[in-house]
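FORM 7B - TANDEM STRUCTURE REPORT

SECTION 1: FIRST PROTEIN
SEQUENCE AND TOKENS:
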Amino acid sequence: MPVHPLTLSRRSALALSAGGTALAAMPAWARAAANDHADLATAIDAFVQQAMAAFPDQPALSVAVVRDGQAILTRGYGVRKMGEARRVDDRTLFAIASNSKNVTAAGLAMMVDEGKVKWDEPVRTYLPGFTLSDPVIGERITVRDTLSHRAGFGLGAGDLLFWPNSDRSREEVMARVPFVPIQDGFRAGYHYCNLMFVVAGEVLAAASGQRWEDFVQDRILDRVGMTDTVPMASLADPQKSALPHARTGPPLRYQGPMRPIADSIAAIWNWDSAAAAGGICASAVDWSKWIAVRLAMGALPDGSRLFSEETAKEMWRPNVIVTSSEGPTAALPGRAIASTYAMGFQVQDYRGERLISHGGGSPGGISATMLIPGRNIGFAVFSNAEESYLLRALRSGITDICMARTDFDWIADSVRRDREGIEKSLAAAVEIDAKQAAGAAPSLPLSAYAGTWRDPWYGDITIEARTTGRGRNARTGLYLSFTHNPALQGPLEPYDGEMMRTRFPDSREEDAFITFEIEDGRPVRATVKGVSPDIDFSYDYQDLKLTKV
């Protein structure tokens, strides 16, 4: 995922960001810990507990650390649901979201080894008739491109086809792919794109003769011995899962107190239609086995191989630059000279060494996988809340412990950034409400905006006039519905002139501004954007181009 200013949303879970001012240094014992398995596990365990103490609203974490092919730490911390006593352990399931992407890439690597797929073969070789809104790109896009975020789509393009929980099947999502707009040149730059991983999953299905989830279960999870893990959130037993938590306001999403937001992972995160991009739920014990396979370049403990060393190396070969800079400074000790994306993993320099990583974010959960191949060490952190600065502290702090670096206090720096981010977001919320209070009235009666509004890739959004109350208490207002996302339904209020804003009753979701274009005295077109400055990128409202039907 691209590097953005860190905010209280899942977007920050998908990029390794370093920075801030060095405060108190990491304890000195962390330096020696990197030389011994037991000491390293003890140091990381202590650091995780310190981090959780600094972020007391975090319900639970699960951590897996692997060194030299051995799981030296797998542990759960905290409770599966706030207000309840049941604790998580190293077998508890967490939504790992976009960490699923490197599993999809590995499945395609297996097909490459079997001669059934070629990385640089066009997608339409395996999916005849495949095309995109730019037919030239549709003709040329390859399997490698689908795994590298370089097709030319904008950030999060097409995510509303499955986010938030949608009623569309995978087949229906694929049918809409040719209509999703492309905003950049082909292979011209990096834009995080879940949609193309859905396509990659369908290439895997076509090449293997199995549905993505069946291939992952039969050919990967079963063979690696990942007995807890499920390929889709709908298969995650709530009794074995860490339940999602988030801040849902007031005044805006990502603000206010932490609270449980669902009684199962799938209730808020059902990506079965996009499972290849983010559907897997895993335990620390199981993910430690996966980390061991990735560090062993595809080799399994019994001496057999899941995929070849050649394809393992190819999956880590950079395909597109994510960011570049002048490198680390005293204030930015982990800043990369070059951060790149390969296939299902981000590859960068970190403190002079190669770091392979990926993040994952779902409503109510974030995760990270970090591999340091030069040290044969890898670790993962799973969370059941959206405390993104806590994850930042753990990502970089544990990496530093593994590298015997003690010159930066990631916990204190992340706490400071968290506090500053909250202050900025609360100020923005006040400004948003003030603008509405001072806003001009719409130029037309509210009933004029009612009707069916259609977007070429999403489909229909309906707006209807609704009257509530009786007699003198009767009030007429507008009600908006995204027809394929049940949670995105609620009142539509005047904001400023031809701009209106939603008020979705489901506070777990993000409100939107809708701006209408008037021609000949009637609204004919409309554009959409998010209300909150911290909005998650998967609410890709900005790609909607609505026309009144």
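SECTION 2: SECOND PROTEIN
SEQUENCE AND TOKENS:
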Amino acid sequence: MDAHSRGRADEIDPADQWVLNPQTGNYELRLDRSAGQPAVPSPSRGSSASATTAAPGRDAAGSPERDTATEAPVPGQRRRRVPEQGRGGRQTSTSRRRPKQGASRKKKVLLWTGGTMAVVLVAGATGAYLIYDKLNGNIGTVDVGDAAVDTPGMDGPLNILIIGNDVRTGEGNESYGNKSNVTGHADTTFLIHVSEDRTNATALSIPRDLKIEIPDCPTKQPDGSTKVVPGSVGKTKFNESFGVNGRDPGCTMRTVKEMTGIGINHFMMVDFNAVKTLSAAVGGVEVCLTKPIRDMDYSKLDLPAGEQRIQGEQALAFLRNRHGLGNQSDLDRIKMQQQFLASMMRQLKEDTLGSPTRLLSVANAATEALTVDKGIGSALKLTSLAKEIGKVDLKNISFMTVPVRDNPDEPPTRRATVVLDPVKAPQVFGMIQNDVSFTEVKKKQQDAKNAQAQAQAKLLQGPRARAADVRVDVYNGSGVQGAAQATLLWLQNEQGVSRSTNKSNAPEKAAKTTLTYAPNQADQARKLADLMGLPATALQPGTQDAGEREPMTLVLGADFKGAGVPVGGPAKAPDVEKVEADKQVCAK
């Protein structure tokens, strides 16, 4: 567009056509005859856009037009000083008179405010970039390959593994063990499950001394190649899933998936120093003790009974201590760790999020302490993940420990490790797999029962056989090694189904568990369905009666979650100790 089309005809500066409307206080374009166009007044407040056009040489009110040179200037235009009419018609110089406090002052305020805002916005953008760049530079990342289950964005249920690395390097940490190990092991580990609808979350502690099998683990090498670290020969301590023989955090993720059947989306790893810096960044963490702890020989912890706020070295000692608690085991220490984390979560939500200074301090401390997978390896992605977790109400976050038993292979007087509880552990894993909240389980149980009752009303009506009379062959089509044998032992030893047989692997993998039976075996099928929690869709009745000793056929499918875990979803919450994050619980 050229100068003429912009209104600069006849060498008239277009800036001279902008005048102050005294009724609105705004600058408006005046298209009068000086620009070769008819004068069009700007409508005043409350006037119609169709107001009568002013006559030539007059303004909209009928007064004579003033020369445009005497109008208030457009911002940025130099103003020509002219005499003004004073009282009695006398002329007074504007240079000797205090300017009016009207539109010109408003203009100056707007100019000052606009300029200041521009500086603030530029400075803010620069500061935000510098902060973001610094936080990004703090974060360490590890490529764990396919050990992480890919999730588009942050949709769906999320499973995050928090690995506490017990590496002793760092000032003051040598008192907690041998600081020559520069890699460390998987010490305190939490599996955090965030429900798909973000209404609840579960923080499941995994004991470091849990005896478990560690699978083979492909690990990325510095040169970009992949090296497979062999798994354990038989069962070993869980803490060896990281740091031993070059195992990386991806190995811990694979171990947890193998143990629980739960795919892990992301991992975060923190060390001893993280506890010190994070607890200090939030201004200390409130904890509670039912009795005093004085452990000067090991953790150096010296705390009185009651509520108190701890940070730094004292917070680390609190998390590491297990002397003076219960039976001085790792399981007692886990309870203290759960109390500490629940308290920190409450403090972050109630105090820290409202303070930009403290929030930045926490963000800096957290990113400096974190090593994560590449999927969340930036401040922006970590922020997105934090927002998803932050949607969950504290009262619906449950802390609990994987159900375990003392290791039966160790003598009663020297038991130092534990093994999975064969009944309760699969139930807990099954609830997480099925995205069932431990804080709302009763309502979901009832909903599940109602839905199953309608589907099974007809198929499962009728008498039940005794467990001892049920004959069934068990085939493994689940893809889970040892599933058929585990089910057989559970049926025979805990349910009294003695006439059951392990038929090893099915001809092919099955997506769903099925029970095929003859019409004259319906009572046996109903009994087995009751015991295993089989849904109506799993029952496949035949058309011909079976012989007296002929067994039914049970094929375990991919939906099989473990012996004793209902295939149709958890029938009830297992009896395990848990704590909600919104409650203060004193360690015993």
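SECTION 3: OBSERVATIONS ON SECOND PROTEIN
Residues 1-18, 31-100, 106-122, 172-178 have pLDDT under 50 and may be disordered.
DSSP finds eleven helices and 27 strands in the chain.

SECTION 4: SIGNATURE
Preparer initials: ____
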